[in-house]
Amino acid sequence: MHQLLLDIKPVPSPTLANFQPGRNVELLQMLHNLLAEREPERFVYLWGAGGCGKSHLLQATVAAYTQMNLKAIYCKPRKHDNFSIVDESDADCIAIDDIDSLDEPSQIALFNLYNRVRDESRIRLLMSGSAAPMFLKLRQDLVTRIGWGLVYQVHELTDDEKIQAMRTHAADCGFELSHDICRYLLRHGRRDLPSLLMTLEALDRYSLVHQRPVTIPLLRELLQVAT
Q1: Which of 125-162 are b and which e, b meaning 16 or more Cβ less than 10 Å from the residue's Cβ?
Q2: What is the DSSP string of 167-225?
Q3: What is the tens place of the pLDDT at every residue in 144-193?
Q4: CB contact burial 93-117 (16+ within 10 A = b; e otherwise)
Q5: E strands of 8-142, at which residues?
């Protein structure tokens, strides 16, 4: 299994184009408007459960700014790390992922950053967390400021939407995927979309190596090899 994963092509870098929107069409359009400077709001907060796509959207937005020859910064603080932004004064966009993990000094740093960004009209500040602002276990003055901007919940794809995404990805890879195989994978594999698509690519490779069609028994065999 490990060799198969090494042999397949890597997961594409996050872009707005390869984000499966599901119920997040309005959010995706807002980010496009932000990039096109059609969105006047400069503060955006995204929240949702792990694996729903928050990090994908922040990284994709930063990548889009970079492709336009603008300066964009993406940060994902780890628990108990001191949070700091180096030389943000000339940035066009700053994206900070998982703000739930910020300790007290780092929350103060983010609070001060927010105030500096508010005074610099061209900088966009994007943030993400696991809960709506009112439920964040952060400093109240920081929570208040987060709630001043645009707040969007990032909805996880439904099972039907994941199945459609898997079947589309399989078709792009050159093989047909049945609903039954998709359902089996949703019951027995990791359910976040990146993991599902990586498993499909490993399944395609496994099928080619063993010269066997893509079936549930083949998928079951692959998953057993992986454990």
Answers
A1: bbbbbbeebeebebeeebbebbeebebbbbbbbeeebb
A2: HHHHHHHT----HHHHHHHHHHS--SHHHHHHHHHHHHHHHHHHT----HHHHHHHHHH
A3: 999 999 999 999 999 999 999 899 888 888 889 999 999 999 999 888 88
A4: bbbbbbbebbeeebbebbbebbeeb
A5: 43-47, 72-75, 93-96, 124-129
Task: Write out pLDDT tens, residues 34-57.
Answer: 999 999 999 999 999 988 899 999
Dist CA 77 CA 39 (whole Å): 27
pTM of the model: 0.83
Instruction: Quote the tokens at residue 176.
Output: 């047909």
- Contact between 167 and 177 (Cβ < 8 Å): yes
Strand order, beta sheet including 93-96: 72-75, 93-96, 124-129, 43-47, 150-153
CA distance 27 to 147: 16
CB 178 within 8 A of CB 163: no
Question: What DSSP string runs through 25-62?
Answer: HHHHHHHHHHHTT-----EEEEE-STTSSHHHHHHHHH
DSSP string for residues in 148-178: HSEEEE-PPPPHHHHHHHHHHHHHHHT----
Q: Which residue has the tokens 């093989």?
A: 175
Q: List Cβ neighbours of 225 (8 Å cut-off, separation of 6 or more).
A: 1
8 Å CB contact between 216 and 181? yes
**Cα separations (Å) of 222 from 3, 4, 97, 201, 210?**
12, 10, 33, 11, 11
Q: What distance in Å separates the CA atoms of residue 220 and residue 149, rounded to the nearest whole number? A: 46
